[in-house]
Amino acid sequence: MRYIKSRPEKPWFVTFAMLDSMKVKLPRQATRKAGVKKRKSVRGRPPTDEVAARATRLLDVATDFFLEHGFKGASMSEIARRAGASKQTLYARYPSKAALFAALVERKSSLIFEAIGALGQDIGLRDALLRFGYTLLTMILSEDARGLHRVVIAECIEFPELSEMFWDLGPGRMRATLVNYLRAQQSLGVLRPGNPEHAVEAFLGMLISTASLRTNLGLTTPLMTSATQRRTWVAFVVDLFLSAMQPAPPSVV
User: Topology of 102-245 in CATH?
Assistant: First the structure.
């Protein structure tokens, strides 16, 4: 573009050179703004696997802390610090210490049900009880389960809600599952008729009463130390239970 010099008597006169200069600057300004705008990004949520890993770590740390300090001595702030999380994050997930403890028990219970699988699904009665019994016995003898059980026993007088919560999410839930399964087997004629709750109490009493008592007293279980020993014991209990629960033979007229 041809340059036209402005006249001094008209200072307001804008030269073509000035217009050219403005035209050059405008794109650069727009580019800079666009660049700034491009750098802005809305921070999205972390990936699902990362969220799951954080939740798992939080519960792992909480489990260790409860086992170390008990329910009363556990500090939500310290649990959050050890887990590398903020107190806001911890309380957003678990509004109270009781809710956090309940999550530990529920996770342990869920792991058992995952290992046991659906009772009666593509598996016979004896095999289902063998799998149920071995998984349950192995869990009861684990360090985490024994520790959580001791915490509940030690704190149940001062915090009675712990006992109810522990029962509902753990032993009570497993008993209810087994009761429903045995009731279904009775309706099919595989087991003798009767109260399935009585049958469950008899089965679990034989299976875990001694192991549970000894572990609560801090004693070892010599007959159930190895996996082979536990499987042998479970098979003995299952066969004894089934022999007592087999349906009566049809009467001959």
Answer: Tetracycline Repressor; domain 2 (1.10.357)
DSSP letter assigned to residue 185: H
The CA distance from 46 to 54, in Å, is: 10
Residue range 209-242, pLDDT digits in tens: 888 888 878 888 888 889 999 999 999 999 999 9
d(CA 60, CA 63): 5
Q: Where are the domains of the chain?
A: 48-95, 102-245
**Nearest one of 100, 165, 154, 133 to 235, comparing CA atoms:** 133
| CB 98 within 8 Å of CB 92 | no
Helix/strand/coil for 7: coil
Alpha-carbon distance 68 to 151, whole Å? Answer: 9
Q: Model pTM?
A: 0.68
Residue positions counted in the chain: 253
